[in-house]
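#lab-general

N.A. 3:47 PM
ok so I finally got the sequence cleaned up, no stray characters, all 277 residues accounted for. can someone with queue access submit it? mine expired

B.Y. 3:52 PM
send it over

N.A. 3:53 PM
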Amino acid sequence: MTSAAAVPAGAVPAPAPSDRVRQVVVLVGALVAAGTAAFGAGAFGGTAVQDASGGALSAEATPVAPDNPAFRIWSVIYLGLFAFAVYQVLPRHAASPRLRATAWWVLASMVLNAAWIGVVQAGWVPVSVVVIAALLAVNAVVVVRLVRLRPESTAQAVVLDGTLGLYTGWVSVATLANVAAALADAGAGELGLGATGWSVVLVAAAAVLSVAWARFTAGRRALALGIGLAMSWGLAWIAVTRFQGPLVDTTVAWAAVAASAVALVAGVVAATRRPTD
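B.Y. 4:20 PM
back already:
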């Protein structure tokens, strides 16, 4: 016998009080986290991230540091996160299964991003590696949950999947650059392969990671394309600043060009795959 209160297959369940709490907390928390991050990054004056920690994260700090214009992607990411915060708070989205599964994690990611900027501004470069690794892990949880559940609308695919794709792709490249910066700041030396050798290894690792992301997100078009575009963007700016400027290294530059192309192609191919569910 079927209960009269049963939810029909495919229907969105009725909102619970916890859904309303989540919507409000995520909206307020996202706005505070984004504002804190923007202030800490120097958007309203103060020290820009690339100038903090004695320049440990500047474009000239290591051969895998992206050129400064690469960081303009944050404007797009923050705009997307703001759109997400507004989208998820709309009453009709209160009981969305995908938002229930991801909204708290997206907020945690934004808080970690703000924390990372604070740590860098404080000059704690080794700690920044731990924070950005946690940030990437949280984003990975979001990606896994987005892949498991089909987007409920085109708008959701763009606002949630597209934004988190760009966010995750950029953080993937930034994590590798952050590791290199921490090693250089700690005076780790050339560790056998030399600066160029290790930089090529890290760039190659980014290319491999982009393919792994593409394979996992295949069929989730906005998510796969967002990750591919952001990783390609970051790697391309590593190439640009290695071809010119005070830290020229054409070996790393060409490796970054190849890795950027791999990330772009992988993302596009994954985005054109048909969803399996």
